[in-house]
Amino acid sequence: xxxxxxxxxxxxxxxxxxxxxxxxxxxxFDPLWDIAPILAIxxxxxxxxxxxxxxxxxxxxxxxxRRLARAASAELLLPAAAEVxxxxxxxxxxxxxxxxxxxxxxVPMPGHRPEQxxxxxxxRSRGDEPWFLLTADFLMVGDLARPDLGQEGAEGSxxxxxxxxxxxxxxxxHVEVYPGHVAGST
Length: 186
Ligand SMILES: [Fe+2]
Hints:
By secondary structure, the chain is α/β, with parallel strands linked by helices. It has helices spanning about 35-45, 65-70, 155-170, and strands at about 1-10, 15-20, 25-30, 50-55, 75-80, 90, 95-100, 100-110, 115-125, 130-140, 145, 175-180. The strands form 2 sheets. Strands 1-2-3-4-5-6 form a 6-stranded mixed sheet, covered by helices on one side. Strands 7, 8, 9, 10, 11 and 12 form a 6-stranded mixed sheet that branches. The site of fe (ii) ion (FE2) has 6 residues, from loops.
């Protein structure tokens, strides 16, 4: 399995690529608007983008997901709870995306947006324990997701603290976390 991060310096937004060495497929999580660097990494890895996943639908991300899915002839996947008017496969909590040795489990993390999902990533060639969590906007460097953008702030906070934070803290200590925003985020 291979794993790459792309940062857009102006906004601190992060895109992640997770690929299988066994099948030559890769998945892209929260693709930035500029899809050229994503396609370049996939090509450098000798991989083809087969799955494109958006963690949530929100104006703080200008997503390149639909253009990337079209350009790569990949499947577009969104949280099933997302209300969109374009075609995409809906992901339910507990669903798995499998690419050879790569196994990604869909974990619901509401609070920033009600439909937000994270991906818990396993490399089955290494073992049965998860390796890392792609947190999207649920977690930032040194901070938590803003709960006041997708809904009323107090309601979002309640959901964050009741549902999502315990879900994060219950993961084994060795699980790495990779946020959707790094330094530079507005
Ligand atoms: Fe967001």
